[in-house]
Amino acid sequence: MRGDEKRVSIFSCHVHPDGSRIATGGLDAKVRIWSTKPILNHASELSGRPPKSLSTLTMHTGPVLVVRWAHSGRWLASGSDDEIVMIWDLDPTARGKVWGSDEVNVEGWKPLKRLVGHESDVTDVGWSPGDRYLASVGLDSAVLIWCGFTLERLRKIDQHQGFVKGVCWDPVGEFLATGSDDRSVRIWRTTDWELEAEVKKPFDHSPGTFFRRLRSTDGLTLYAVSSDGTMAVFSFDVKELEGIAPSSAQEQYLKRFGFTAPPLPEGFSHQMAADAVKAQANHRITPPPSPRTQGQDFGSATPATVRNSGEQINTLIAKRKPKKRIQPTFGGSLSGAVPSSSTNGVASSKPASRAPQRAFQDVPSSNHVSISVPPTSALALSVSQPFSESVSGFGLGLNTGESTEDYPMDLDGEVRISSLETFGQNGRGKRRAGDDMDDRTATKPRTLGGDRVRENVPVRPIASRGAAAMAIPALLAEGSGIAGRLEPPQLVTYLKAAVEGSEDIFEGRNAEGDDPNEVIFVSGKQTQWLDYVPSPILALVATSTFCAVAMQDGSVNVYSHTGRRLMPALSLGVPCHALAGSKNMLLALTVSGMLYVWDVRKQAAKFSPASINPILAASPNLTITSTTIRPNGAPVIQLSDGVTHSYDPALLAWTKLSEPWWAEGSDAWQGRQRTNNQSAARGPVTIIEGAISERMAVDSARAEKVRPAWWSAALTLGHLESKLHAAKALDSPQEYKQALLLYAKRIADEGFRAKAEELAKELFGPVYWRPNRDESWSPTTLGMSKRDLLKEVLNIFIRSKTLTKLGQDWQEIMKKSQSGE
Question: Residue 677, by phi and psi: left (phi above 0), alpha (psi -120 to 50) or beta?
Fold first, then answer.
């Protein structure tokens, strides 16, 4: 599209919803925004008014494979080979010469947020109707779902078996379709993001790729881009394409079936004004007005002056509360509700600074300048004659005047006072010295170590452990049954831990010479903070609330995600054998066999340090294979013999969570018992049993051994009773409920009336129990009502052949208890 430059391949294009612009992305890693009027109107092209090239966006580091406008027209999404989805927003400060080139940006766009999550090229993105969601797909075979308002990641779908290259939404946003090189198109429900349908047959012999062409919103213009760096534009007459339905026809069709779109959140800057949507006639496009000002004067909104090219320039009126103004932002944000990584979509509530007196009219408690929009007829744009009589609605800088230095305008019809007053005549205003800088400035925030170039550190073992490591055997020689069996982790040059629920990384770097050792918190490619530590780093852990580092001198540092020390440095005396964390809980197991657990949020220990000697000293061949911690602070330690333990501070003893013994005869052992309860299937007890099954080989001699008559029943009931205690210890309510119902069914099948009645009494509690009077019995367990659980247990008893009468009797007791008899 540029005749004076060397052409580069264009991979994607997309037409703005109001038809005024088209965005392209290509091999040069740039996103370009073009005016469509010079493309469709030869006279406009010759006059250069408006200019064909509006803006060049240069934040990607790889070829741009896809560009997509939001339906509101406020935001632009782009995906690239650099694995990033970038969201762009209007920025009045970004106009002017493009750094490093001769290009000039007539209008400015800023990168609003980088969406990180793909592990390979981003091949396609798509906004759902109403911009409620944004979907992105890539060569990592993943489909990522983002919130269309906060831009936070909601879901990752990774069920495709090949590159995912296409994504689109149904007209009402209930289903999402993705196309992949695995020769399938899969349809996903937006209610739970699960698979609704899979289409394969039409693609059995397809080459595994697809092509996309773009039409304008009115359906009369077709755009196609090519690898030779050109774009072909095909313009059709209304008579050539019969039966084109306007967007309002779809709304009427959906109303016939009673469909009502769910309400959208209020206050987000890229949301279209409702009036702008209603203004679309059946056969006309009505873009919002393009503001044009002379200095600081604003008149009433009238169908404006007609320029030489026949375009209409609309005069605007700005209103505000006297002596109030929006704090000017250096980054030129267009709305206080623009969601970004720094504001999360919440408007700032800071007091506004004072502004000079002007003749603005009063409006009730508003932080925006309202724009009076002319009647629809004044801005109506004929589909058959695009842009011949009206300036495009989005139209910043698309006027036909001599200057392109227009004032910025929000798409929802509001102009920020800050953007008007920050930029004076011709957009070149100066900030007064008395104006305070807004903390939402778009300048790069200062970080501790963020200006340093990050270097890749090869992972190499470090042979020398220093004097502290040499003293460890002496510390452990005092008669302990586990002396010398717990080794500290291998000292290496580089360690890292991923932060729970995010893409952030907590790194540790050990120097091989005299340089200091350091820990670094990295978000994307940006160093957020760093700290230097006095001793070599042995282990790291990072949760959603804190980061911790264990050092060779036996100390542990705990940091927040901003680098603040949440706790004083902990001195354990000897190095750590293992370090683990979950939510607010931190676990440290030392080489001397002492276990520590802290609640970082409360800055308190969960229990006094406990020795693992009772579980490890039984055999000299036992080793620890896994050390983790649950969010409730329960430690989980699995040994080489398959037995998994936890420490119960109420009992002051180690307890068994599970062991291979149950696998020899329990019918409820994981792998033998099928369940449709997906949440329970992923619970911690099931994971532990799965790990035991994987590690412990099946002894064929034991399996074929003749067992006593009651072997299976005894081990099944014992296993389920043990599983109930384990689920309670690990705070897993779904697994507790599942084990309870299986236990009730088994004792009902066996006809064990005494066990059944004891279980019913335990769940029912005291007959005359009242809250706050009897503390010996709790009405709930793991957040579930015991009597509600009893109802389900009694239903199982009633359906059995042996305990029907017992179940009915207890149901009568529950009815009388509820009625107060």
Answer: beta
Residue 126 has what pLDDT? 94
447-467+482-606 maps to CATH 2.130.10.10: yes
Which tens digit of pLDDT belongs to each residue from 206-235? Answer: 665 555 556 667 778 888 888 888 888 888
How many Cβ atoms from other residues are within 10 Å of residue 470's Cβ?
10
Residue 364: other Cβ atoms inside 10 A: 5
Strand-pairing partners, residue 655, are 646
Q: pTM of the full predicted structure?
A: 0.49
pLDDT tens, position by position, 725-765? 999 999 999 999 999 999 999 999 999 999 999 999 999 98
- Positive or negative, the CA dihedral 48, 50, 52, 56 is positive
CA distance 59 to 55: 13
Rounded CA-CA distance 613/483 in Å is: 10
Q: Minimal CA–CA distance to 519: which of 490, 487, 560?
A: 560
Considering the chain, tell me which residue range(s) the CATH 2.130.10.10 domain(s) occupy.
Answer: 10-244, 447-467+482-606
Containing H/E element for 605?
Answer: strand 604-605
HSE-CB of 497 using CA atoms within 13 angstroms: 23
What CATH topology corresponds to 10-244?
Answer: Methylamine Dehydrogenase; Chain H (2.130.10)
Burial class (CB in 10 A: 0-12, 13-18, 19+), 238: middle
Tell me how long the chain is.
821
Q: Give 265's pLDDT tier (boundaries 50, 70, 90).
A: low
Q: Is 402 helix (H, G, I), strand (E, B) or coil?
A: coil
